[in-house]
């Protein structure tokens, strides 16, 4: 006797679990039960789980009975004529949706010729088992699962044409690739989702070889000539926003050029780009610290008495400036109102990004890497026919990752470029790899994709044959210009007296436990004395009671609150965070006594 659970709650028992499940499925296929219902039998605990709840991922499959698909050629013809709709197929029980639980009891065939008596379902298309981004990876069934997953994730971070109306939008941190292209090696999904309307990459010539060690550990070498011709160029947009807020007592912010008597006035140079209304003009070139929108605010924390005698000098400066390490050109200025009817100013800054060392690129197979070197066009290796690769990819990225599709795409892209056609690389349903190689041979190239190459510096022929082809490369949004960060001295937090955190706040670079070990292993452990004194402080400590004493600056004398004047007091160097800990302990009525010893 099997227990039956509905949405996880016990509802009864079934004598014969097989007959019960068959009956439930039969009623669902007839349309008497909701098509949203899924049923699963768990053999280990002998229980039946029925699910009708929301939020389950489900996928459609064709129902199979006695080794034959219920969706016949006659149905396909009716669909083509428009006589049958998708909903009709579900209502007639030809197609049903399975969730993760019911899939456990299903035996699914990829293609119709594979069907046996044991099969319960047939894939509509094998492409259907993966998501949108994964189905865009060409020849994806030749890759290992982790790399297919990585390739899918990387495509979401690629720069392209995210929206045609980007010119009139105010989106946060966006990038536009200047010359995006449709891939030569595409899949069926590229047509379905109209990928050519919002492409996110470029077709380039790739050679698999090392170059003076500059493409070790996944880095790539790029041809400077390709960059000069527009490869990987993009524009970065970021908005700056300011609004005139209303405060209690009828006070308001004011967008204007701040007066010199305003508290926190910067310098005339910082405000040099502002026009009469306090807003910057378009096409101005700005850098770190320049004010984009001038604004003053009323003083905070007013008591009712102070409200009547406010002088104009009491206002404080609250302008919007360029952040630390940023630069660009003012692209677009928008003056409007917010919901409360207050003035709202949005300024968009643009910055042209040319590929540089440290920028991240990837193929669609999870073979990501950063630029390690940009080589002058003349120094790049070239083939016998005079083709110079745009990018050099390290051969070590292939054996351990087993991304065969990366190599097949190179050969496929080569055939597509030479034959002037798109190559179909749809998952599980692509063009045959042997046919692609035969076609490549018919163009007068080696069928294995290799070519004789020459050293661009010396002109000598390489002993090894180099694998060269065309492939679709993506530039990712992780650019070194957004991440580069260093600091000497700078702002500190009020509470702990340690450096602030984060690049935007000009924060410090944390040296952790493991970084400390590398210094020690390197034999430079004295550096730690420098690195670990970010919040060094000197405190007077009473040698009698071991608590923090007091130094009277005015009279230049030391005394202890507990023991008085007649005690020995020493200045001790410690971390300010430790001093805070002592204070915390005191607040909990714990006596933290420091017992001092002489160093010598």
Structure description:
The structure is a single chain. The radius of gyration is 34 Å and the shape is extended. The mean pLDDT is 92. Helix 8 packs across helix 9. Helix content is 18%, strand content 26%. The N and C termini lie far apart (83 Å). It contains 13 helices and 34 strands. It has a six-stranded mixed β-barrel. With 600 residues, the protein is an alpha+beta fold. The protein folds into four domains: 2-124, no CATH class; 147-233 and 357-475, DNA-directed RNA polymerase, subunit 2, domain 6 (Dna-directed Rna Polymerase Ii 140kd Polypeptide, Chain: B, Domain 6); 237-353, OB fold (Dihydrolipoamide Acetyltransferase, E2P), CATH 2.40.50; 536-587, RNA polymerase alpha subunit dimerisation domain (DCoH-like, Alpha-Beta Complex).
Query: pLDDT average, as an integer?
Result: 92
Task: Report the CATH C-level class of the largest domain.
Answer: Mainly Beta
User: Can you count the helices?
Assistant: 13
CATH homologous superfamily placement of the largest domain: DNA-directed RNA polymerase, subunit 2, domain 6
| Helix proportion range | 10-25%
Alpha carbon gap, first and last residue: 83 Å
Low-confidence stretches: none
Number of strands: 34
Shape: extended
The percentage of residues in β strands lies in 25-35%
């Amino acid at each position: 006797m099997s227990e039956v659970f509905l949405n996880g709650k016990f509802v009864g028992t079934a004598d014969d679990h097989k007959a019960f499940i068959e009956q439930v499925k039969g009623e669902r296929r007839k349309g008497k039960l909701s098509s949203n219902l899924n049923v699963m039998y768990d053999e280990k605990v002998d229980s039946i789980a029925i699910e009708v709840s929301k939020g389950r991922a489900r996928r459609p499959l064709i129902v199979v009975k006695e080794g034959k698909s219920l969706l016949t050629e006659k149905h396909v013809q009716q669909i083509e004529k428009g006589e049958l709709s998708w909903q009709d197929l579900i209502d007639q029980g030809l197609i049903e949706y399975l969730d993760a639980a019911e899939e456990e009891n299903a035996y699914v065939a990829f293609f119709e010729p594979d069907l046996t008596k044991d099969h319960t379902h047939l894939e509509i298309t094998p492409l259907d088992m993966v998501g949108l981004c994964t189905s865009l990876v060409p020849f994806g069934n030749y890759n290992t699962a982790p790399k297919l997953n990585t390739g899918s994730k990387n495509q979401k971070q690629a720069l392209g044409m995210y929206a045609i109306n980007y010119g009139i939008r105010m989106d946060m941190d966006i990038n536009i690739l200047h010359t995006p292209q449709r891939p030569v090696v595409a899949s069926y999904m590229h047509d379905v989702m109209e990928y050519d309307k919002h492409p996110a990459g470029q077709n380039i010539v790739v050679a698999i070889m090392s170059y003076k060690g500059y493409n070790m550990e996944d880095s790539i070498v790029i041809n400077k000539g390709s960059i000069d011709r527009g490869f990987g160029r993009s524009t970065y947009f970021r908005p700056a926003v300011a609004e005139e807020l209303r405060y209690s007592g009828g006070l308001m912010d004011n967008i204007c050029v701040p007066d010199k008597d305003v508290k926190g006035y910067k310098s005339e140079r910082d405000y040099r780009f502002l026009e009469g209304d306090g807003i910057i003009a378009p096409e101005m070139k700005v850098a770190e610290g320049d004010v984009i929108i001038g604004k003053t605010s009323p003083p905070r924390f007013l008591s009712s008495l102070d409200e009547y005698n406010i002088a104009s000098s009491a206002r404080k400066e609250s302008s919007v400036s360029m952040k630390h390490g940023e630069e660009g050109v003012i692209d677009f200025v928008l003056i409007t109102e917010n919901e409360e009817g207050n003035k709202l100013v949005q300024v968009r800054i643009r910055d042209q990004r040319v590929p540089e060392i440290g920028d991240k690129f990837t193929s669609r197979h999870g073979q990501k890497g950063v630029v390690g070197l940009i080589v002058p066009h003349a120094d790049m290796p070239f083939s016998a026919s005079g083709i110079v690769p745009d990018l050099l990819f390290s051969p070590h990225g292939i054996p351990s990752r087993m991304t065969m599709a990366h190599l097949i795409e190179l050969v496929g892209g080569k055939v597509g470029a030479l034959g002037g056609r798109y190559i179909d690389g749809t998952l599980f349903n692509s063009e045959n790899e042997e046919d692609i190689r035969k076609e490549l041979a018919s163009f007068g190239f080696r069928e294995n994709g290799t070519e004789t190459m020459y050293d661009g510096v010396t002109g000598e022929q390489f002993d090894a044959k180099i694998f060269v082809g065309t492939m679709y490369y993506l530039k990712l949004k992780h650019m070194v210009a957004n991440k580069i960060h260093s600091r000497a001295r700078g702002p500190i937090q009020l509470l702990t007296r340690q450096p602030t955190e984060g690049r935007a706040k000009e924060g410090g670079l944390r040296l952790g436990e493991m970084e400390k070990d590398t210094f020690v292993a390197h034999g430079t452990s004295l550096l730690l004395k420098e690195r670990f004194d970010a919040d060094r402080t000197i405190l007077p400590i009473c040698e009698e009671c071991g608590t923090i004493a007091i130094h009277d600056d005015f009279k230049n004398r030391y005394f202890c609150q507990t023991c008085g004047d007649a005690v020995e007091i020493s200045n001790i160097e410690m971390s300010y965070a430790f001093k805070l800990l002592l204070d915390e302990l005191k607040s909990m009525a714990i006596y933290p006594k420091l017992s001092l010893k002489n160093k010598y």
